[in-house]
Amino acid sequence: MPEGDTLFRTAAGLRPYLVGKRVTAARANGPGPIPQVHRVVGHEITAVDAMGKNLLIRFDGGLEIRTHLRMNGSWHRYRPGERWRRPPARARLVLEVPGAVAVCFDAPVVELLEQRAEALHPALAALGPDLLAPTFDAEEAIRRLRDPMREGLTIAESLLDQRALAGLGNVYKSEILWIERVSPFTRTGDVDDETLARLVATARRLLLANVAPTHGAERTTTTGDRGAPGPLYVYGRADRPCRRCRTPIARASQGVDLPRLTFWCPSCQPAAGIIAPDV
Questions:
Q1: Residue 233 is part of a domain; what is its CATH number?
Q2: Which position among 9, 35, 53, 96 bears the catalytic label?
Q3: Which residue of the set 77, 198, 260, 266 is catalytic?
Q4: Which of 34, 104, 158, 241 can pair with 93 through a Cys bridge, CB separation 3.0 to 4.6 Å?
Q5: Is 53 among the residues known to form the active site?
Q6: Is residue 66 annotated as part of the catalytic site, yes or no?
Q7: pLDDT tens-digit profile of 130-150?
Q8: Which CA distances in Å does 170 have to 47, 125, 173?
């Protein structure tokens, strides 16, 4: 699933070609409910923004389109008449403006709504502080992580909860916990305040580093070396030596509602107060 920095870069890439342009054609394809996107034809695009893992395209007149890419979705931009890199049948949403065609492929969520309804939207209104927002509120993120409903969850599950803080995905989850030497299976309620604050600060630092214009490429790195064969510390490195202590990296499925793979170092990330992994 694309993480917050990927959506941020996607929005930044689309913005110069869409903002300030009037929509000349719009269409959406199934499966599932198809929004009445023809309503945006003739309207000017006023903003393209990332909000957590959502991409929002706003129009004058008060409409906006929300897409969520989940695991397989992606946005592409083409010149008019240019051949698409994916089959047209996989296009969930197509927006045409003078000089550009924006295509959203394979996204399971494409939704048209009124901007005024954003504050009441079940997905958007519930989002926690966006890690990439200039006004990111770390104290509010920590308060949400401390909510009693998350006390019994593992810290890895809590970090992925977009209602606590928005923008983190599975790659960053494992990387952040390794950097801060926290077992992913520690109960959130057992993580002390200082450590929780470090986790939030590291999450924001890594996401901001990966949207910096100087990075150019879209390959996520947490080690700071985009050119290296392995720019990540633990994610995807099961059975390979830990970059700190050489212990083989472990992997396990974690979570109940949406099980995700977690990677960690059994030696560097102490197991005090853990919830046993299901390996």
A1: 1.10.8.50
A2: 53
A3: 260
A4: 104
A5: yes
A6: no
A7: 999 899 999 999 999 999 999
A8: 28, 22, 5
